[in-house]
Amino acid sequence: MRYGKETKLGTSDVLDKSEEYFGEGGLGLELVSRDDCCISLVGGGGHVTVTVSEGEKTSVDLETREWDYHVKKFMADELK
């Protein structure tokens, strides 16, 4: 499933929050890759990929399998 959200946060802030929330210190997903615009994590039979692009506001594209509830919660709680 794909989700999208705009935020006032910068790219690095979104990626840091994504890694903290979904990664080892959060939900425990394994970090597969991270670069300047995106991060991918896997675990629990699914995955989460976050892609960020900056403009007037920062656009965040989230793709997931098996982690929909947590992706929606992350968007509501962390991407303000």
Rounded to the nearest angstrom, the distance between the terminal CA atoms is 21 Å
Gyration radius, in Å? 11 Å
- As residue ranges, the low-confidence spans are none
As laid out across the biggest beta sheet, the strand order is 1-5-4-3-2
Mean pLDDT: 97
Order of helices and strands: EHEEEEH
Our count of helices gives: 2
Strand content: 35-45%
The helical percent reads 25-40%
Q: Label the overall shape.
A: globular
Structural class: alpha+beta
Q: Which sheet architecture does the biggest sheet show?
A: 5 strands, antiparallel
Count all strands and give the number. Answer: 5
Task: Provide keyphrases for this structure.
alpha+beta, 2 helices, 80 residues, 5 strands, five-stranded antiparallel beta sheet
Q: SSE layout and pairings?
A:
Layout: E1 2-7, H1 11-22, E2 30-34, E3 38-43, E4 46-54, E5 58-65, H2 68-78
Antiparallel strand pairs: 1-5, 2-3, 3-4, 4-5
Give an account of the 3D structure.
- With 80 residues, the chain is α+β, with helices and mostly antiparallel strands.
- The protein has a domain at 7-56.
- The chain is built from two helices and five strands.
- The protein has helices at 11-22, 68-78, and strands at residues 2-7, 30-34, 38-43, 46-54, 58-65.
- A five-stranded antiparallel beta sheet has the order 1-5-4-3-2, covered by helices on one side.
- A hairpin with a 3-residue loop joins strand 2 and strand 3 (38-43).
- The protein is globular, with a radius of gyration of 11 Å.
